[in-house]
Task: inverse folding
Protein backbone atom coordinates (compact mmCIF):
# COMPACT_ATOMS: atom_id res chain seq x y z
CA UNK A 1 0.00 0.00 0.00
CA UNK A 2 2.69 2.51 1.10
CA UNK A 3 4.79 1.41 -1.86
CA UNK A 4 2.00 2.11 -4.35
CA UNK A 5 1.28 5.48 -2.70
CA UNK A 6 4.93 6.56 -2.83
CA UNK A 7 5.16 5.50 -6.47
CA UNK A 8 2.01 7.53 -7.27
CA UNK A 9 3.53 10.51 -5.43
CA UNK A 10 6.59 10.20 -7.65
CA UNK A 11 4.38 11.53 -10.50
CA UNK A 12 2.98 14.53 -8.57
CA UNK A 13 4.45 17.88 -9.68
CA UNK A 14 3.17 19.64 -6.49
CA UNK A 15 4.89 17.23 -4.11
CA UNK A 16 7.94 17.29 -6.37
CA UNK A 17 8.18 21.09 -6.03
CA UNK A 18 7.97 20.88 -2.23
CA UNK A 19 10.45 18.03 -1.87
CA UNK A 20 12.93 19.55 -4.32
CA UNK A 21 12.83 22.87 -2.50
CA UNK A 22 13.77 21.18 0.77
CA UNK A 23 15.48 17.98 -0.32
CA UNK A 24 19.10 18.60 -1.25
CA UNK A 25 19.47 21.31 1.36
CA UNK A 26 17.97 19.15 4.11
CA UNK A 27 20.50 16.50 3.18
CA UNK A 28 18.26 13.48 2.69
CA UNK A 29 18.62 13.36 -1.09
CA UNK A 30 22.40 13.27 -0.54
CA UNK A 31 22.13 9.77 0.82
CA UNK A 32 21.08 8.45 -2.59
CA UNK A 33 22.38 11.13 -4.99
CA UNK A 34 26.03 12.09 -5.44
CA UNK A 35 25.32 15.73 -6.33
CA UNK A 36 23.59 17.89 -8.89
CA UNK A 37 26.54 18.46 -11.28
CA UNK A 38 28.95 15.94 -12.83
CA UNK A 39 31.90 17.64 -11.12
CA UNK A 40 30.34 16.86 -7.73
CA UNK A 41 30.49 13.10 -8.37
CA UNK A 42 34.28 12.90 -8.54
CA UNK A 43 34.90 12.38 -4.83
CA UNK A 44 32.20 9.71 -4.49
CA UNK A 45 33.45 7.83 -7.55
CA UNK A 46 37.09 8.03 -6.44
CA UNK A 47 36.16 6.77 -2.97
CA UNK A 48 34.30 3.81 -4.46
CA UNK A 49 37.15 3.06 -6.87
CA UNK A 50 39.55 3.17 -3.92
CA UNK A 51 37.35 0.53 -2.24
CA UNK A 52 37.88 -1.62 -5.39
CA UNK A 53 34.39 -0.98 -6.71
CA UNK A 54 33.58 0.15 -10.23
CA UNK A 55 30.80 2.66 -10.87
CA UNK A 56 28.00 3.35 -13.30
CA UNK A 57 27.13 7.04 -13.49
CA UNK A 58 23.47 7.89 -14.04
CA UNK A 59 22.74 11.45 -15.14
CA UNK A 60 19.20 11.67 -13.78
CA UNK A 61 16.42 12.62 -16.17
CA UNK A 62 13.39 10.97 -17.72
CA UNK A 63 10.27 11.66 -19.77
CA UNK A 64 11.48 14.70 -21.70
CA UNK A 65 8.72 16.15 -23.89
CA UNK A 66 10.65 18.41 -26.32
CA UNK A 67 13.24 17.32 -28.94
CA UNK A 68 15.58 20.14 -27.74
CA UNK A 69 15.69 18.60 -24.25
CA UNK A 70 16.56 15.21 -25.74
CA UNK A 71 19.28 16.91 -27.81
CA UNK A 72 20.64 18.57 -24.64
CA UNK A 73 20.83 15.14 -22.99
CA UNK A 74 22.94 13.83 -25.89
CA UNK A 75 25.28 16.81 -25.57
CA UNK A 76 25.52 16.23 -21.83
CA UNK A 77 26.51 12.59 -22.36
CA UNK A 78 29.22 13.69 -24.80
CA UNK A 79 30.67 15.84 -22.01
CA UNK A 80 30.23 13.06 -19.47
CA UNK A 81 32.28 10.53 -21.50
CA UNK A 82 35.10 13.05 -21.78
CA UNK A 83 34.81 13.89 -18.10
CA UNK A 84 35.12 10.21 -17.08
CA UNK A 85 38.12 9.82 -19.38
CA UNK A 86 39.87 13.05 -18.30
CA UNK A 87 39.43 12.24 -14.61
CA UNK A 88 40.44 8.60 -15.09
CA UNK A 89 37.37 7.35 -13.28
CA UNK A 90 36.62 3.63 -13.36
CA UNK A 91 33.04 4.23 -14.41
CA UNK A 92 30.61 3.59 -17.23
CA UNK A 93 27.20 5.17 -17.92
CA UNK A 94 23.52 4.24 -17.44
CA UNK A 95 20.68 6.16 -19.06
CA UNK A 96 16.97 6.05 -19.83
CA UNK A 97 15.48 6.19 -23.33
CA UNK A 98 12.72 8.60 -22.21
CA UNK A 99 15.55 11.03 -21.45
CA UNK A 100 16.52 10.74 -25.13
CA UNK A 101 13.02 11.41 -26.46
CA UNK A 102 11.13 8.08 -26.33
CA UNK A 103 7.93 9.93 -25.37
CA UNK A 104 8.27 11.99 -28.56
CA UNK A 105 9.04 9.13 -30.96
CA UNK A 106 10.87 5.83 -31.11
CA UNK A 107 12.95 7.02 -34.05
CA UNK A 108 14.17 10.11 -32.17
CA UNK A 109 15.21 8.02 -29.14
CA UNK A 110 16.94 5.47 -31.40
CA UNK A 111 18.76 8.16 -33.33
CA UNK A 112 19.94 9.87 -30.12
CA UNK A 113 21.03 6.54 -28.64
CA UNK A 114 23.04 5.84 -31.78
CA UNK A 115 24.86 9.18 -31.42
CA UNK A 116 25.62 8.35 -27.79
CA UNK A 117 26.98 4.90 -28.67
CA UNK A 118 29.22 6.36 -31.38
CA UNK A 119 30.59 8.91 -28.91
CA UNK A 120 31.03 6.28 -26.18
CA UNK A 121 32.99 4.07 -28.59
CA UNK A 122 35.58 6.85 -29.01
CA UNK A 123 36.35 6.48 -25.30
CA UNK A 124 35.95 2.68 -25.27
CA UNK A 125 32.96 3.20 -23.01
CA UNK A 126 30.04 0.89 -22.17
CA UNK A 127 26.49 2.25 -21.87
CA UNK A 128 23.56 0.58 -20.10
CA UNK A 129 19.97 1.33 -21.08
CA UNK A 130 17.93 1.26 -17.85
CA UNK A 131 14.48 -0.29 -18.05
CA UNK A 132 11.51 1.96 -17.25
CA UNK A 133 7.81 1.15 -16.68
CA UNK A 134 6.18 -1.70 -18.63
CA UNK A 135 4.66 0.68 -21.21
CA UNK A 136 8.22 1.12 -22.46
CA UNK A 137 9.54 -2.45 -22.29
CA UNK A 138 8.73 -3.57 -25.84
CA UNK A 139 9.84 -0.28 -27.38
CA UNK A 140 13.09 -0.22 -25.38
CA UNK A 141 13.96 -3.76 -26.46
CA UNK A 142 13.05 -3.02 -30.10
CA UNK A 143 15.45 -0.08 -30.11
CA UNK A 144 18.04 -2.24 -28.39
CA UNK A 145 17.89 -4.86 -31.18
CA UNK A 146 17.78 -2.21 -33.90
CA UNK A 147 21.10 -0.79 -32.67
CA UNK A 148 22.66 -4.13 -31.72
CA UNK A 149 23.48 -4.89 -35.35
CA UNK A 150 25.91 -1.94 -35.51
CA UNK A 151 27.07 -1.51 -31.90
CA UNK A 152 28.18 -3.86 -29.16
CA UNK A 153 29.27 -1.38 -26.46
CA UNK A 154 25.94 -1.41 -24.66
CA UNK A 155 23.52 -3.56 -22.70
CA UNK A 156 20.10 -3.36 -21.11
CA UNK A 157 18.07 -4.32 -18.05
CA UNK A 158 15.43 -6.99 -17.41
CA UNK A 159 12.95 -6.81 -14.51
CA UNK A 160 11.98 -10.10 -12.88
CA UNK A 161 8.55 -8.84 -11.77
CA UNK A 162 7.34 -8.94 -15.42
CA UNK A 163 5.79 -12.17 -16.71
CA UNK A 164 7.46 -11.64 -20.09
CA UNK A 165 11.02 -11.51 -18.70
CA UNK A 166 11.89 -15.19 -19.06
CA UNK A 167 11.26 -14.99 -22.81
CA UNK A 168 13.16 -11.69 -23.04
CA UNK A 169 16.15 -13.18 -21.20
CA UNK A 170 16.33 -16.12 -23.60
CA UNK A 171 16.38 -13.81 -26.62
CA UNK A 172 19.05 -11.56 -25.07
CA UNK A 173 21.19 -14.59 -24.15
CA UNK A 174 20.93 -15.86 -27.74
CA UNK A 175 22.00 -12.43 -29.02
CA UNK A 176 25.03 -12.43 -26.68
CA UNK A 177 23.84 -9.19 -25.06
CA UNK A 178 24.87 -8.01 -21.62
CA UNK A 179 21.93 -7.99 -19.18
CA UNK A 180 21.52 -6.33 -15.80
CA UNK A 181 18.91 -8.26 -13.80
CA UNK A 182 16.72 -6.30 -11.34
CA UNK A 183 13.44 -7.00 -9.54
CA UNK A 184 11.75 -3.87 -10.96
CA UNK A 185 10.97 -0.49 -9.38
CA UNK A 186 7.70 0.71 -10.95
CA UNK A 187 4.03 0.40 -10.05
CA UNK A 188 2.81 -2.36 -12.39
CA UNK A 189 -0.66 -3.90 -12.82
CA UNK A 190 -1.16 -7.59 -12.10
CA UNK A 191 -1.91 -8.16 -15.79
CA UNK A 192 1.79 -7.71 -16.59
CA UNK A 193 3.69 -8.29 -13.34
CA UNK A 194 3.70 -10.75 -10.42
CA UNK A 195 1.76 -9.12 -7.57
CA UNK A 196 3.52 -11.29 -4.93
CA UNK A 197 7.09 -10.55 -3.90
CA UNK A 198 7.69 -14.29 -3.44
CA UNK A 199 7.14 -14.87 -7.19
CA UNK A 200 9.36 -11.90 -8.13
CA UNK A 201 12.14 -13.33 -5.94
CA UNK A 202 11.72 -16.85 -7.36
CA UNK A 203 11.87 -15.49 -10.88
CA UNK A 204 15.01 -13.53 -9.90
CA UNK A 205 16.80 -16.67 -8.72
CA UNK A 206 15.80 -18.66 -11.80
CA UNK A 207 16.83 -15.97 -14.29
CA UNK A 208 20.09 -15.29 -12.42
CA UNK A 209 21.05 -18.94 -12.80
CA UNK A 210 20.28 -18.92 -16.53
CA UNK A 211 22.35 -15.77 -17.01
CA UNK A 212 25.25 -17.15 -15.00
CA UNK A 213 25.31 -20.36 -17.03
CA UNK A 214 24.66 -18.94 -20.51
CA UNK A 215 24.76 -15.13 -20.40
CA UNK A 216 27.40 -12.61 -21.40
CA UNK A 217 28.89 -11.01 -18.27
CA UNK A 218 25.55 -10.53 -16.44
CA UNK A 219 25.05 -7.91 -13.73
CA UNK A 220 23.22 -9.25 -10.68
CA UNK A 221 21.71 -6.02 -9.34
CA UNK A 222 20.12 -6.59 -5.96
CA UNK A 223 20.62 -5.85 -2.26
CA UNK A 224 18.71 -8.98 -1.26
CA UNK A 225 21.00 -10.95 1.10
CA UNK A 226 19.08 -14.20 0.59
CA UNK A 227 19.37 -14.03 -3.19
CA UNK A 228 23.04 -13.02 -2.96
CA UNK A 229 23.81 -15.98 -0.67
CA UNK A 230 21.98 -18.33 -3.09
CA UNK A 231 23.92 -16.85 -6.02
CA UNK A 232 27.25 -17.29 -4.25
CA UNK A 233 26.44 -20.97 -3.59
CA UNK A 234 25.32 -21.50 -7.19
CA UNK A 235 28.52 -19.93 -8.50
CA UNK A 236 30.66 -22.13 -6.24
CA UNK A 237 28.72 -25.33 -7.07
CA UNK A 238 28.99 -24.68 -10.82
CA UNK A 239 32.60 -23.47 -10.73
CA UNK A 240 31.66 -20.17 -12.36
CA UNK A 241 34.63 -17.86 -12.14
CA UNK A 242 34.07 -14.52 -10.34
CA UNK A 243 35.21 -12.56 -13.39
CA UNK A 244 32.27 -13.87 -15.48
CA UNK A 245 29.70 -11.59 -13.75
CA UNK A 246 29.36 -8.62 -11.41
CA UNK A 247 27.13 -7.61 -8.56
CA UNK A 248 25.58 -4.15 -8.71
CA UNK A 249 24.04 -2.05 -5.93
CA UNK A 250 22.73 1.47 -5.56
CA UNK A 251 24.74 4.35 -4.08
CA UNK A 252 23.87 4.71 -0.40
CA UNK A 253 22.19 1.30 -0.05
CA UNK A 254 23.71 -1.63 1.92
CA UNK A 255 27.26 -0.29 1.95
CA UNK A 256 28.12 -3.04 4.48
CA UNK A 257 27.12 -5.74 2.00
CA UNK A 258 28.98 -3.98 -0.84
CA UNK A 259 32.19 -4.07 1.23
CA UNK A 260 31.67 -7.67 2.30
CA UNK A 261 31.24 -8.91 -1.28
CA UNK A 262 34.40 -7.13 -2.39
CA UNK A 263 36.37 -8.55 0.52
CA UNK A 264 35.05 -12.01 -0.44
CA UNK A 265 36.57 -11.50 -3.91
CA UNK A 266 33.44 -10.61 -5.93
CA UNK A 267 33.15 -7.78 -8.44
CA UNK A 268 30.92 -4.90 -7.35
CA UNK A 269 29.66 -1.96 -9.39
CA UNK A 270 27.84 0.89 -7.65
CA UNK A 271 25.13 2.83 -9.48
CA UNK A 272 25.79 6.50 -8.73
CA UNK A 273 23.02 8.91 -9.77
CA UNK A 274 23.48 12.66 -10.03
CA UNK A 275 21.73 15.70 -11.50
CA UNK A 276 18.94 18.07 -10.62
CA UNK A 277 16.15 15.68 -11.71
CA UNK A 278 16.46 13.46 -8.63
CA UNK A 279 12.88 13.49 -7.38
CA UNK A 280 11.46 10.43 -9.26
CA UNK A 281 14.58 8.39 -8.52
CA UNK A 282 14.46 9.21 -4.81
CA UNK A 283 10.76 8.39 -4.51
CA UNK A 284 11.39 4.94 -6.05
CA UNK A 285 14.09 4.35 -3.41
CA UNK A 286 11.67 5.33 -0.65
CA UNK A 287 9.02 3.02 -2.12
CA UNK A 288 11.47 0.10 -1.95
CA UNK A 289 12.02 0.66 1.72
CA UNK A 290 9.39 2.83 3.38
CA UNK A 291 11.45 2.87 6.62
CA UNK A 292 13.72 5.26 4.69
CA UNK A 293 10.87 7.76 5.15
CA UNK A 294 11.94 8.19 8.79
CA UNK A 295 15.35 9.20 7.58
CA UNK A 296 13.74 11.79 5.28
CA UNK A 297 11.42 13.18 7.97
CA UNK A 298 14.25 13.35 10.54
CA UNK A 299 16.30 15.44 8.10
CA UNK A 300 13.39 17.74 7.28
CA UNK A 301 12.65 18.33 10.99
CA UNK A 302 16.30 19.00 11.73
CA UNK A 303 16.33 21.80 9.14
P1 LIG B 1 14.31 -5.97 -2.19
O1 LIG B 1 13.50 -4.78 -2.54
O2 LIG B 1 13.61 -7.25 -1.87
O3 LIG B 1 15.25 -5.57 -0.99
C1 LIG B 1 16.10 -6.50 -0.34
C2 LIG B 1 16.80 -5.78 0.81
O4 LIG B 1 17.67 -4.79 0.27
C3 LIG B 1 15.88 -5.01 1.74
O5 LIG B 1 15.36 -5.81 2.75
C4 LIG B 1 16.81 -3.92 2.26
O6 LIG B 1 17.65 -4.44 3.26
C5 LIG B 1 17.66 -3.61 1.07
N1 LIG B 1 17.14 -2.49 0.26
C6 LIG B 1 16.55 -2.58 -0.96
N2 LIG B 1 16.24 -1.33 -1.42
C7 LIG B 1 16.61 -0.47 -0.48
C8 LIG B 1 16.56 0.95 -0.37
N3 LIG B 1 16.06 1.71 -1.32
N4 LIG B 1 17.05 1.52 0.77
C9 LIG B 1 17.59 0.75 1.75
N5 LIG B 1 17.66 -0.60 1.69
C10 LIG B 1 17.19 -1.20 0.60
N6 LIG B 1 14.79 -0.99 -11.49
C11 LIG B 1 14.17 -0.84 -12.68
O7 LIG B 1 12.94 -1.00 -12.75
N7 LIG B 1 14.89 -0.50 -13.79
C12 LIG B 1 16.25 -0.34 -13.76
O8 LIG B 1 16.86 -0.05 -14.79
C13 LIG B 1 16.90 -0.52 -12.51
N8 LIG B 1 18.26 -0.37 -12.39
C14 LIG B 1 18.88 -0.72 -11.21
C15 LIG B 1 20.28 -0.72 -11.13
C16 LIG B 1 20.91 -1.18 -9.98
C17 LIG B 1 22.40 -1.21 -9.93
C18 LIG B 1 20.12 -1.63 -8.87
C19 LIG B 1 20.78 -2.19 -7.63
C20 LIG B 1 18.76 -1.58 -8.93
C21 LIG B 1 18.12 -1.11 -10.07
N9 LIG B 1 16.74 -1.05 -10.14
C22 LIG B 1 16.13 -0.86 -11.37
C23 LIG B 1 15.91 -1.15 -8.91
C24 LIG B 1 15.41 -2.56 -8.66
O9 LIG B 1 14.40 -2.89 -9.59
C25 LIG B 1 14.82 -2.70 -7.23
O10 LIG B 1 13.72 -1.83 -7.11
C26 LIG B 1 15.80 -2.40 -6.13
O11 LIG B 1 17.06 -2.92 -6.41
C27 LIG B 1 15.32 -3.04 -4.80
O12 LIG B 1 15.22 -4.42 -4.96
P2 LIG B 1 16.24 -5.48 -4.30
O13 LIG B 1 16.63 -6.43 -5.40
O14 LIG B 1 17.35 -4.80 -3.65
O15 LIG B 1 15.35 -6.35 -3.32
Result:
Amino acid sequence: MTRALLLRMSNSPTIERFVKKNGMSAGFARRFIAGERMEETVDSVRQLNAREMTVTLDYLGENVSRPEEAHDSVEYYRRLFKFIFDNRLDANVSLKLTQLGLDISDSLAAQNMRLILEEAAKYDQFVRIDMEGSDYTERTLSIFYELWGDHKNFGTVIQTYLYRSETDIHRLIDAGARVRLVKGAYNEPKEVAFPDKKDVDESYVKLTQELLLKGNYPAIATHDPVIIAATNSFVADNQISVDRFEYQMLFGVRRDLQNKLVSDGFRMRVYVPFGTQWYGYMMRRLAERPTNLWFVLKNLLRK
Remarks:
- The two ends are 29 Å apart (CA to CA).
- The mean pLDDT is 92.
- The first helix runs from residue 2 to 9.
